[in-house]
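Lesson 9: reading folded outputs for more than one chain in a single document. The general rule is that every protein is listed as its sequence immediately followed by its structure tokens, and records are never interleaved. Here is the first one.
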Amino acid sequence: MHTSTEGALPLLRLLHLVSPSLPVGGFTYSQGIEWAVENGWIRDADDLEAWMAHQLRSALPDLDLPLLVRMQAATLERDQAVMSGWVDILLAGRETAELRREESDRGRALADLIIAWGLEDALAWKPQLARSQTAGFAFAAASWRIEPRDAATGYAWSWLENLVLAGIKLVPLGQTRGQQTLARLATLIPSAVVAALEVADEEIGTSTPALAIASSAHETQYTRLFRS
């Protein structure tokens, strides 16, 4: 019996896209966790899990993931103006200079990588993609025919893995305890994706005051392991 490899390719592309080996710098950011640890907000694995779970239940399904799906649709429709509008909304939702800078710095790195991969029209789309790593992720997912639900799941996993690994270094946690935390938090991703797919355009947006405070304070933290 002959089996087709065509159906497996989008999955492999998604695994490539969420790989921590990609040179887009996600592992160099803690999104406020570093300051939260220093200030005593996050003291152990339970605190880290609660911190991340809150964002998985609010920030991601209300902002990042709905916009990712819409950016993927804009790519398929070849509508750069619509993509640019969604990027504007995403950047407006990044509540600190640090978070906006991370979005754009990683966006530029991913845009260059997408062009190096030779994805169709990537160079023409660079002005939009370089503003937001979420836009670049969506562009690559659309180009590789990754289903929006799968793309959102992969995006959420990549975000979660990077930040839990940051927490393992900062709290610090043992590798086993950290991986247990990651495994429990991963169970929240499917429901976050389902919720994100049901968000209407006018409902997109969120506010995470604790994250904003921690990120703002991290911008001027005296000693840092992670970028600000």
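And here is the second record, again sequence then tokens.
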Amino acid sequence: MSQGSNFVDYVKICCRSGHGGAGSSHLHRDKHTAKGGPDGGDGGRGGHVIVKGNAQLWTLLHLKYRKHIIAGNGDSGGSTLKTGKTGMDEILEVPLGTIAKNAETGETIFEITQDGETKILTPGGRGGLGNWHFKSATQQTPRFAQPGEPGQEEWNILELKLLADVGLVGFPNAGKSTLLSVVSAAKPEIADYAFTTIVPNLGIVSYRDNKSFVMADIPGIIEGASKGKGLGFRFLRHIERNSVLLFMIPADTNRTLKQEYEILLDELEEYNPELVHKPRVLAITKSDLLDDELVQEMKQELPANIPSIFISSIAQKGLLELKDLLWKEINRAV
């Protein structure tokens, strides 16, 4: 997943489903039958606007410039009980973790979490019934049929919340991108300035016995992110779908480890109180700068009741132990 405009996690689209076809009011006629009974067929259903999960997609970029999604109309019914052709459906493929919402009410309609999963976003109009449905003992030749139902037109929002096993949470320059680049094949941008990462990055982390898990590097949170400051507010939604949160605090922080951890935790709680109930692991990064005595001192500052580990991505220190810890928490979360 590349940086910049290639990552799109929010689109607003106008969906118009197809009109249903009208039923036929035909009466049977052939060279042997001058006055046959009703044989008008039903109209075809209007096309749906359908959302389908695709595990190969990571962004909504392909929908960014498709503001109007229009499904096909159903055809009218025909003679000899022929049903009209169903209108062509419009299928929108989306990444797993996509939520569909009504743009006017903000109500969540559904979410896509499985590859190949399909949901109808905007249903097409039903086809009208042909006149053969209305024949009876007292009305043997009805000369009327139902019109088709009109389609619907509505504005919807598709919003992506990344699905990952581990989400990296930390302030800018905490070493999140560096860790992801070392333990996976992902190539996030890395530089010595704040907000190097401006979009989420995903990487597949290899583990023992050919196992693996997905790690997501979320853009850095700052104090006040839950109120809209910095980049954090825009991307906090991606943290919601991660099974385990890996809090990363650099060893050279200006605050104490406990203070920095509590600020990060407060921002998550302000955004969504449910996030504080997710399994958490604390990693102290850049620990190659520390000697053993300093490590022992800093361990006294660590928050209680949370697994913690000192690591260095550059020096490849503690990374295998970190994977072991994360794998344990992932399986406990499941």
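What the second record shows: The chain has five helices and 14 strands.
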